[in-house]
Amino acid sequence: MSRRTSRTRLSLVRVLALVLAVAGMGWVGARAVGGLVAQAAVPGRSVFDAYVDVTATPSFAFETPEGPAQSSVVLSFVVADPGAPCTPSWGGYYTLDEAGSTLELDRRIAQLRSTGGEVSVSFGGQAGTSLASACTDAGRLHAAYQAVVDRYRPASLDLDVEGAALSDAAGVARRAAAVKAVQDAASSAGAPLPVWLTLPVGRDGLTSEGVHAVRAMLSAGVDLAGVNGMTMDFGVATSASAPLSDTVRTAATALQRQVATAWDAAGRRLSAAQAWNRVGVTVMIGQSDVPTERFTIADANTVAMFASTQGVGRVSMWSLNRDVTCAPPLPTVLTVVQTSCSGVDQRGQSFARALSAGLDTLPASDATATAAPTPDPSPSPDDPATSPYPIWDPYGTYPGGAKVVWHHKVYQARYWTSGVAPDTPTATAWDSPWTLLGPVMPGDTPAPLPTLPTGTYPQWDPATAYVAGDRVQVGDVPYQAKWWSKGQKPGVPVKGGSPWLLVYPQQ
């Protein structure tokens, strides 16, 4: 027996309805997929660096970083010299040359770079007078910025504009023009120079003056790497249930919207991800200027995760000088800001390591920087004629602060020491009586020798026999005998070693 298959007849109306339904599903599906793709946009590169207060006391040894989190630093702050408004100075205390001789800044930068680290330079800050406000001559202002760039070859420039400098409209315009000229010169030389504009922010982002500063930079043609918000001093009371990181994220989100708007107005539309990548977040670690406001290690972990997820272009902190728990005679927890400790109990943890978790720790232009070169196992002898300080002597006694040269490196004694070679391996840097400042630099010449008033010790006499411990002077320079000698003038190199040691005034 056979079965006849029944057939359904489709009307034209049903066919049209089916086509429209499928088309509708396709449109909805496309919208849904498009939304998912937009939400899943890959965040841009996030970089961590940290500010170092160059002129703070005690000095922070940025030249010997503990690890990657401390390897990229923003040296702060270059301002106008109080006596010469168009001359750049560090903090208003040291000209560039004075910082080189007194702070050993050039040498320390060279040392950091030899480890694979890098430096950026920050202009402005809260204290001092900004160059753009003090120097009204456009050509000389450009020259001042250029002098800093030529000397230090920074990976990027940071323009910290706040306080009176932010409300100085003429200075804002001069700064933009000068930085544009510096950036153009760098590009022409084949060394593009990223520029970050650092500004105060609140919960709602930039102030109206801050928005104007951003527009001025973009209008002048400056290729801004981004706008770095100083996410600090909000005037809030923080607690475990109301952490400061919540306010930081709110302010950063508002800043991201303002960045997108500013770039759009300048004719450079940004996607959401691109706008986030032009946002910087700088926190004040530990106790802030507001007694009730504290940024904790837990806050740092939250901000690092937020930055990594959103693709925040830059994360920074004020400052590496402060990244340690306060020690006696100070209490562990404080409500008054300190320049050399955080004011909170870090329990052995580092803000720099927490904030840099998951982020890059070198500027984009130096992301492929190599590690420190392997030391020469048998270095050539140090040359007194090109050594900026006396060559270390195993018989010498060196008070705290004394500087010596050993194996083409400059070291400074942390406390009185004798017989310990400056490059002697130790478990930690603090186990050594010496601090490494950096290499002997091209062009170095011997520093002036220590002196004492004439008559402090007898003048050296070539006819007199001297025994160990005898002290003499050659002019005003004091020496002490290491062993018996006669006729061997102090300060004159001798094969096998001089029988004389310099005497430092502190001894």
UniProtKB/TrEMBL annotation:
Task: Report the InterPro entries cross-referenced here.
Answer: CBM5/12, CBM_sf_5/12, GH, GH18_Chitinase
Q: Residue ranges of region Disordered?
A: 366-388
- Identify the domain of life: Bacteria
| Gene Ontology molecular functions | hydrolase activity
What are the alphabetically sorted keywords of the record?
A: Hydrolase
Lipoprotein listed as a keyword: no
Query: Which SUPFAM superfamilies does this chain map to?
Result: (Trans)glycosidases, Carbohydrate binding domain
Q: What is this protein called?
A: Glycosyl hydrolase family 18
